[in-house]
Amino acid sequence: MKKITVIGGGTGTFVVLSGLKKYPLDLSVVVTMMDSGGSTGRLRDQLGILPPGDLRQCLVALSDAPLLWRKLFLYRFEKGDLEGHNFGNIFLAALEKVSDSYDEAIETVSYVLKTKGNVIPVTLNKLHLVAEYENGKKVTGEGLIDENHSEKSRIKIAYLEPQGKVLMSKIVYDDVKRIISKDYKVCPVKRNLRNISGGDRYPAIKLMLYEKP
Q1: Residue ranges covered by each domain of the chain
Q2: Residue 203: burial class (beta carbons within 10 Å; 0-12, 13-18, 19+)
Q3: To pair with 202 at 20 to 30 A between CA atoms, which of 2, 68, 179, 208?
Q4: Averaged pLDDT for residues 104-117
Protein backbone atom coordinates (compact mmCIF):
# COMPACT_ATOMS: atom_id res chain seq x y z
CA MET A 1 0.00 0.00 0.00
CA LYS A 2 1.38 3.41 -1.01
CA LYS A 3 2.03 5.87 1.81
CA ILE A 4 1.22 9.55 1.29
CA THR A 5 1.64 12.58 3.56
CA VAL A 6 -0.16 15.82 2.73
CA ILE A 7 1.11 19.05 4.28
CA GLY A 8 -1.00 22.20 4.50
CA GLY A 9 -4.52 23.30 5.30
CA GLY A 10 -7.56 25.03 3.87
CA THR A 11 -9.63 24.31 0.78
CA GLY A 12 -6.76 22.99 -1.33
CA THR A 13 -5.86 20.34 1.21
CA PHE A 14 -9.55 19.45 1.67
CA VAL A 15 -9.93 18.79 -2.06
CA VAL A 16 -6.73 16.73 -2.29
CA LEU A 17 -7.63 14.59 0.74
CA SER A 18 -11.20 14.06 -0.47
CA GLY A 19 -9.82 12.63 -3.69
CA LEU A 20 -7.07 10.50 -2.13
CA LYS A 21 -9.49 8.99 0.41
CA LYS A 22 -11.19 7.04 -2.39
CA TYR A 23 -8.07 4.94 -3.01
CA PRO A 24 -6.36 2.20 -0.94
CA LEU A 25 -3.65 4.43 0.54
CA ASP A 26 -1.97 4.92 3.89
CA LEU A 27 -2.74 8.61 4.41
CA SER A 28 -1.42 11.22 6.84
CA VAL A 29 -1.90 14.98 6.86
CA VAL A 30 0.21 17.50 8.79
CA VAL A 31 -2.12 20.45 9.36
CA THR A 32 -1.04 24.07 9.71
CA MET A 33 -2.31 25.76 12.89
CA MET A 34 -2.00 29.48 12.12
CA ASP A 35 -5.47 30.36 10.78
CA SER A 36 -6.88 33.56 12.26
CA GLY A 37 -9.75 34.55 9.97
CA GLY A 38 -13.53 34.09 10.02
CA SER A 39 -15.12 31.77 12.57
CA THR A 40 -11.74 30.35 13.56
CA GLY A 41 -10.32 33.81 14.30
CA ARG A 42 -13.30 34.79 16.42
CA LEU A 43 -13.08 31.60 18.47
CA ARG A 44 -9.33 32.05 18.93
CA ASP A 45 -9.81 35.62 20.18
CA GLN A 46 -12.79 34.94 22.43
CA LEU A 47 -11.93 31.51 23.87
CA GLY A 48 -8.15 31.37 23.63
CA ILE A 49 -8.22 28.06 21.79
CA LEU A 50 -6.10 26.61 19.01
CA PRO A 51 -7.43 27.35 15.49
CA PRO A 52 -9.92 24.58 14.59
CA GLY A 53 -10.77 25.48 10.98
CA ASP A 54 -8.04 23.76 8.93
CA LEU A 55 -8.04 20.76 11.27
CA ARG A 56 -11.82 20.40 10.88
CA GLN A 57 -11.62 20.47 7.09
CA CYS A 58 -8.97 17.75 7.05
CA LEU A 59 -10.95 15.57 9.46
CA VAL A 60 -14.10 15.92 7.36
CA ALA A 61 -12.21 15.28 4.11
CA LEU A 62 -10.96 11.94 5.47
CA SER A 63 -14.24 11.03 7.18
CA ASP A 64 -16.07 7.77 6.46
CA ALA A 65 -18.90 8.70 8.85
CA PRO A 66 -22.52 8.94 7.66
CA LEU A 67 -23.27 11.95 5.47
CA LEU A 68 -25.20 13.68 8.30
CA TRP A 69 -22.06 13.96 10.45
CA ARG A 70 -20.03 15.37 7.57
CA LYS A 71 -22.76 17.89 6.77
CA LEU A 72 -22.93 18.92 10.44
CA PHE A 73 -19.19 19.58 10.63
CA LEU A 74 -19.38 21.75 7.51
CA TYR A 75 -22.57 23.60 8.49
CA ARG A 76 -22.27 27.37 8.92
CA PHE A 77 -24.87 29.35 10.92
CA GLU A 78 -26.50 32.15 8.92
CA LYS A 79 -28.40 34.08 11.63
CA GLY A 80 -28.33 35.04 15.29
CA ASP A 81 -25.40 35.21 17.69
CA LEU A 82 -23.71 32.29 15.94
CA GLU A 83 -23.88 33.87 12.48
CA GLY A 84 -20.75 33.05 10.52
CA HIS A 85 -19.65 30.30 12.90
CA ASN A 86 -19.14 26.75 11.73
CA PHE A 87 -20.63 23.91 13.78
CA GLY A 88 -17.48 21.82 13.47
CA ASN A 89 -15.34 24.70 14.76
CA ILE A 90 -17.58 25.09 17.81
CA PHE A 91 -17.55 21.33 18.41
CA LEU A 92 -13.73 21.25 18.33
CA ALA A 93 -13.54 24.33 20.58
CA ALA A 94 -15.76 22.66 23.19
CA LEU A 95 -13.89 19.38 22.88
CA GLU A 96 -10.57 21.16 23.49
CA LYS A 97 -12.00 22.63 26.69
CA VAL A 98 -13.28 19.31 28.12
CA SER A 99 -10.39 17.06 27.03
CA ASP A 100 -7.28 16.39 29.10
CA SER A 101 -5.08 17.11 26.07
CA TYR A 102 -5.39 18.23 22.47
CA ASP A 103 -4.22 14.82 21.30
CA GLU A 104 -7.20 13.35 23.17
CA ALA A 105 -9.53 15.85 21.47
CA ILE A 106 -8.25 14.82 18.03
CA GLU A 107 -8.62 11.13 18.87
CA THR A 108 -12.22 11.74 19.98
CA VAL A 109 -13.31 13.69 16.90
CA SER A 110 -11.47 11.21 14.65
CA TYR A 111 -13.53 8.44 16.27
CA VAL A 112 -16.78 10.38 15.79
CA LEU A 113 -16.02 11.08 12.12
CA LYS A 114 -14.46 7.66 11.43
CA THR A 115 -11.43 9.38 9.95
CA LYS A 116 -9.38 7.39 7.46
CA GLY A 117 -5.73 8.19 8.13
CA ASN A 118 -3.80 10.34 10.59
CA VAL A 119 -4.61 14.02 11.09
CA ILE A 120 -1.67 15.69 12.82
CA PRO A 121 -1.50 19.35 13.97
CA VAL A 122 1.91 20.82 13.21
CA THR A 123 2.03 22.50 16.62
CA LEU A 124 0.06 22.92 19.84
CA ASN A 125 1.46 26.41 20.40
CA LYS A 126 -0.73 29.44 19.73
CA LEU A 127 1.15 31.08 16.88
CA HIS A 128 0.40 33.72 14.25
CA LEU A 129 1.78 34.14 10.76
CA VAL A 130 3.51 37.48 10.10
CA ALA A 131 4.21 38.98 6.67
CA GLU A 132 6.70 41.79 6.14
CA TYR A 133 6.41 43.67 2.85
CA GLU A 134 9.12 45.26 0.74
CA ASN A 135 7.78 48.72 1.66
CA GLY A 136 8.42 48.02 5.36
CA LYS A 137 4.81 47.33 6.40
CA LYS A 138 4.08 44.35 8.64
CA VAL A 139 0.77 42.46 8.90
CA THR A 140 0.13 39.90 11.64
CA GLY A 141 -2.45 37.14 11.29
CA GLU A 142 -3.23 34.81 8.39
CA GLY A 143 -6.73 36.26 8.04
CA LEU A 144 -5.49 39.84 7.74
CA ILE A 145 -2.74 38.83 5.31
CA ASP A 146 -5.28 37.06 3.13
CA GLU A 147 -7.60 40.09 3.13
CA ASN A 148 -4.85 42.65 2.47
CA HIS A 149 -5.91 43.07 -1.18
CA SER A 150 -5.04 46.77 -1.36
CA GLU A 151 -1.35 46.16 -0.63
CA LYS A 152 0.68 46.63 -3.81
CA SER A 153 4.08 45.81 -2.30
CA ARG A 154 5.35 42.23 -2.42
CA ILE A 155 5.90 40.08 0.67
CA LYS A 156 9.61 40.08 1.55
CA ILE A 157 9.58 37.58 4.39
CA ALA A 158 7.09 35.54 6.40
CA TYR A 159 7.61 34.10 9.88
CA LEU A 160 5.78 32.94 12.99
CA GLU A 161 5.17 34.82 16.23
CA PRO A 162 5.90 34.57 19.07
CA GLN A 163 9.34 33.52 17.88
CA GLY A 164 11.10 30.83 19.85
CA LYS A 165 7.83 28.95 20.45
CA VAL A 166 7.69 26.86 17.29
CA LEU A 167 7.76 23.53 19.07
CA MET A 168 6.07 20.62 17.34
CA SER A 169 3.25 18.79 19.04
CA LYS A 170 4.08 15.47 20.71
CA ILE A 171 2.04 13.55 18.16
CA VAL A 172 4.07 15.11 15.32
CA TYR A 173 7.35 14.39 17.11
CA ASP A 174 6.38 10.77 17.67
CA ASP A 175 5.31 10.29 14.06
CA VAL A 176 8.14 12.14 12.25
CA LYS A 177 10.14 9.02 11.38
CA ARG A 178 7.05 7.24 10.12
CA ILE A 179 6.00 10.28 8.07
CA ILE A 180 9.46 10.62 6.54
CA SER A 181 9.14 7.05 5.26
CA LYS A 182 6.08 7.94 3.20
CA ASP A 183 6.38 7.28 -0.53
CA TYR A 184 5.00 10.70 -1.48
CA LYS A 185 4.67 14.14 0.15
CA VAL A 186 2.01 16.51 -1.20
CA CYS A 187 1.81 20.28 -0.60
CA PRO A 188 -1.37 21.60 -2.30
CA VAL A 189 -0.68 24.78 -4.27
CA LYS A 190 -1.99 27.94 -2.60
CA ARG A 191 -2.75 31.36 -4.05
CA ASN A 192 -0.30 32.73 -1.50
CA LEU A 193 2.32 31.40 0.89
CA ARG A 194 0.35 31.48 4.11
CA ASN A 195 -0.47 27.77 4.65
CA ILE A 196 2.74 26.26 3.34
CA SER A 197 4.88 28.70 5.30
CA GLY A 198 3.14 27.56 8.46
CA GLY A 199 4.34 24.01 7.82
CA ASP A 200 7.81 24.43 6.40
CA ARG A 201 8.93 26.78 9.21
CA TYR A 202 9.57 23.63 11.26
CA PRO A 203 13.02 22.04 10.82
CA ALA A 204 11.59 18.51 11.04
CA ILE A 205 9.04 19.33 8.33
CA LYS A 206 11.79 20.70 6.08
CA LEU A 207 13.77 17.52 6.69
CA MET A 208 10.71 15.47 5.86
CA LEU A 209 10.28 17.26 2.55
CA TYR A 210 13.84 16.67 1.40
CA GLU A 211 14.55 13.27 2.93
CA LYS A 212 14.71 10.43 0.40
CA PRO A 213 12.61 7.36 1.26
Answers
A1: 3-123+168-210
A2: exposed
A3: 2
A4: 95
pLDDT tens for each residue of 27-85: 988 888 888 889 999 999 999 999 999 999 999 999 999 999 999 999 999 999 999 99
Distance CA 57, CA 200 (A): 20
The model's pTM is 0.81
Q: Can you tell me the distance from the alpha carbon of 94 to that of 29, in angstroms, rounded to the nearest whole number?
A: 23
The count of other CB atoms within 10 Å of the CB of residue 58 is 27
Amino acid code (one letter) for 160: L
What is the crossing angle of helices 67-74 and 53-61, to 10°? 160
User: Are 84 and 77 in contact, with CB atoms under 8 Å apart?
Assistant: yes
